């Protein structure tokens, strides 16, 4: 009689077959790929939205900065000069008799327009404006054709970065802003020769030039554009200005133009800024059109996001 092994009973067990394991692995792979795809998609969407927000914020900050400067154009003029300039001496065209360009010695314009003609990306506009006047002293002597002596020690002018400051002499026969090259004591030296007279009043002028250079929106703290400038925004594709004019002097805007017949007609300014993203978005194609100062550009059919901002500034500090 055969004995049974009571200590090691035999049991019958079954495991997964190779086919079942393969099916499970395939299902897991599909799930992992799906989840990974969702993560990648959400990550791309996040970075795309982040880039768009950055582009919009960049353009909005630039627009706010420019708007504030334009709104301040002429500030201090009436307080400094009273009604002495109601004839428009502070709003005349450049000496060459045209609104196009900035003269080497710009005249006493509150606005100096450099309108490049056709509103297109290749030809952004440029605008020089004067924001403040401040009385600094009276001329007591004229040591040289480009030097004047004030009745107080340096007046109230600062010697820090004097090349960024300009002065206006009243009553002056040159009718120009003069750029300061040096301040020593109470003697002011200008870049060019001036035609002052003893007892002429000297006023400090704060001017800015707004321009677009290689996608950088720049602010020159001077009458004439220079390399010493401040970048206030990057990735700006176009900058355009339009001018609201009162052609019949009835106090109401009659038209919006690119090149006013005379600066005295300007009562408002429209600003157009077209910003673009830093990097292309391969999942996006820009098929939009954009209207800047009456001219429509686009579609570009590339992979860059763009954002158009515009605003209107009423000129409230003009003294003409």
SSE blueprint and pairings:
Layout: H1 18-71, H2 77-81, E1 111-114, E2 126-144, E3 147-150, E4 166-170, E5 178-184, E6 187-190, E7 201-213, E8 216-220, E9 229-233, E10 236-245, E11 255-257, E12 266-276, E13 290-292, E14 295-297, E15 306-314
Antiparallel strand pairs: 1-2, 2-3, 2-7, 3-6, 4-5, 4-7, 5-6, 7-8, 8-9, 10-11, 10-12, 12-15, 13-14
User: Helix count?
Assistant: 2
- The separation of the N and C termini measures 131 Å
**What is the number of E strands?**
15
Low-confidence stretches: 81-108
State which percent range the strand residues make up: 25-35%
- Average pLDDT, rounded to a whole number, is 75
The largest β sheet comes out as: 6 strands, antiparallel, barrel
What does this structure look like?
This protein has 320 residues and is an alpha+beta fold. It has one domain. It is built from two helices and 15 strands. A six-stranded antiparallel β-barrel has the order 2-3-6-5-4-7. The protein has a four-stranded antiparallel β-sheet with strand order 11-10-12-15, with helices on one face. The chain has a two-stranded antiparallel sheet with strand order 13-14. The longest helix is centred in the N-terminal third of the chain and has 54 residues, at 18-71.
